[in-house]
From TrEMBL:
InterPro entries: Quinoprotein_dehydrogenase, Solute-binding_3/MltF_N. Residues 31-258 form the Solute-binding protein family 3/N-terminal domain. It comes from the Bacteria. SUPFAM superfamilies: Periplasmic binding protein-like II. This is Amino acid ABC transporter substrate-binding protein, PAAT family. Residues 1-21 form the signal peptide. It holds the Pfam family SBP_bac_3. Keywords: Signal. It comes from Roseovarius lutimaris.
């Protein structure tokens, strides 16, 4: 084999390792760089009070690094203009299986919920298919998965939709929905549990949050939440997976104290020890 061919073969053999090393170098060695929405209460907030902020603080402490945020609204272009632009190294909350990022192992499983007044005749409803919801006005974030279940049950005609994509600095559809529920303008609210749970615990003591874990038809209403890192950063992903595994108890405590309904991995019931 000519010398130039041998060099080419060696170069090709080393390319994956070199590429991996180059990718690994993108992760900061001095700070725990987080991409987050500054106004995504109760998950992330620029004042550091969101439960994702507290999880970031925990992991940064274990890494013995300070947290450094890149703030950007959670909207079109979020991943492209933060994580992929190398402005940060991790997104704290990302649904499992999203193709725009590489997912870590999941650190929580939660579900969509139905929120009801504690004194409502509907207070013991646990499914969207409950016949007592017929003719009732349900609030729902437009385009969210429970809408399929509502449509199947004939509940969309009277539903009140709330916007999915808004600038959270100026609008909060979930908060508006819960205020409308307390005012009697809607009969129930359908919301993602990591949003409804903390908001109800903090601001609406007369409401109750019920995870929708008993629906049998698709789409599923529970999701496993991971952290998102850049594609190809396998070493960083493994490091985060180790951190998540070793600190899962404290992460659960942060989420439970915030009011997030935590489910077992299969989404069939509440996670043991977090009820």
């Amino acid at each position: 084999m000519p010398a130039w061919a041998r060099i080419a073969v060696i170069a090709l053999a080393l390319l994956p390792a070199a590429a991996a090393a180059q990718m690994a170098e993108l992760v900061s060695k001095t700070t725990f760089r987080v991409c987050a929405d500054p106004s995504n209460d109760p998950m992330s907030s620029q004042d550091g009070t969101g439960f994702e902020n507290k999880i970031a603080d925990l992991l940064a402490a274990r890494l013995e690094k300070p947290v450094e945020y890149t703030w950007f609204p959670m909207s079109t272009g979020f991943v492209r203009r933060t994580l992929r632009a190398n402005e940060c190294d991790v997104i704290i909350g990302f649904a499992q299986g999203h193709e725009m990022v590489q997912n870590t192992n999941h650190y929580m499983t939660s579900a969509y919920t139905i929120v009801l007044p504690k004194d409502s005749p509907l207070a013991d409803v646990t499914t969207i298919s409950d016949p007592r919801l017929k003719g009732k006005v349900l609030g729902i974030i437009a385009g969210s998965p429970p809408g399929t279940h509502m449509a199947r049950q004939g509940l969309m005609a009277k539903a009140r939709p709330y916007q999915l994509f808004v600038d959270r600095r100026y609008a909060s559809p979930a908060s508006d929905m819960l205020v409308d529920l307390e005012a009697g303008e809607i009969d129930a609210a359908i919301l993602w549990g990591p949003i409804s749970g903390p908001l109800v615990k903090r601001e609406h003591p007369d409401l109750k949050v019920v995870p929708l874990i008993h629906e049998t038809d698709p789409p599923r209403l529970f999701y496993r939440i991971t952290m998102g890192v850049r594609l190809g950063e396998d070493q960083w992903k493994r490091q985060l997976n180790s951190l998540l595994r070793r600190n899962q108890g404290e992460i659960d405590q942060i989420l439970t104290e915030a009011g997030v309904p935590l489910l077992n991995n299969m989404g069939t019931g509440l996670k043991e020890g977090t009820q």
